[in-house]
Amino acid sequence: MAVDPVCKMNVDEKKPAATSDYKGKRYYFCAPGCKRAFDQNPEKYLGADKK
C-alpha cells in the first residue's frame, strides 16, 4: 500500500484514483482532488519526507 501524500490515506497501488510523477518518484492518490492539490505544490506535501 502507498500513502497519499496529501491526506495520508492508504492507497492500493494497483488501483489508485490518480497518480503523479515528481522528481523520479510516483505518488498515488485516493482521489483526483488530492492529485490536483499535490500537482499545484508538491513540496508542501513532501516537506516532512525529505531525505
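[next item in queue]
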Amino acid sequence: MQKIKIEFKWAVIFSIVGLVWMLLEKLAGLHSTYIDYHMYLTNLFAIPAIWVMVLALKDKKRNFYGGQMTYVNGLVSGLILSAIIAAFSPLTQWITSFVITPEYFPNVIKRSAELGYYKTTAEAEAVFNYSNYATQGLIGALGMGVVTTAIAMIFLRTKAAKQE
C-alpha cells in the first residue's frame, strides 16, 4: 500500500473534483434548463481532469522518486492512478445519478427524444441510465488516464543529464 499511497490519495482527489464538477453542472442548469448545452460543456471537465493527473504525477516524482522519475516510472504510476479512479467511478457515478442530480436521466431522456436523437423514449432510456454511464465511466477513466499519462510524462520525466 505504501507504494501506491500517492496514487490512492490523488484518485480520491480526482473523484471529489469530478463530483464537484457534477454539482456545478447541476447548479448551472446543465442537467435541466440548459440541458441542450450539456453535451458540449461537460467536455470542459477535461481541463481539471488533466490538471489533477499532472499534479498527481508531479507529486509522485517529487515525493516518491526524489525528483528523478523516468517515463516508465511515471507511466506505471499513471496506470495505477487510472485503475484506482476507474474502480471508484461506479461509486462516483452512483452519487452523481442518485444523490446530486437524480433528475438528469429523466430530463436527458425526454429532451433527446424531443429533439429526435432517438426515435423513442425507450431507445433513449437504453442509453441514458446508471448502468450504461457507470460502464462508460470505468472504461473512459482507464482510456483517458492512459492517454493523459502517456502525454504528460513526455514533459514530466527526468531528462538524462547531457555528457560533456
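[queue empty]
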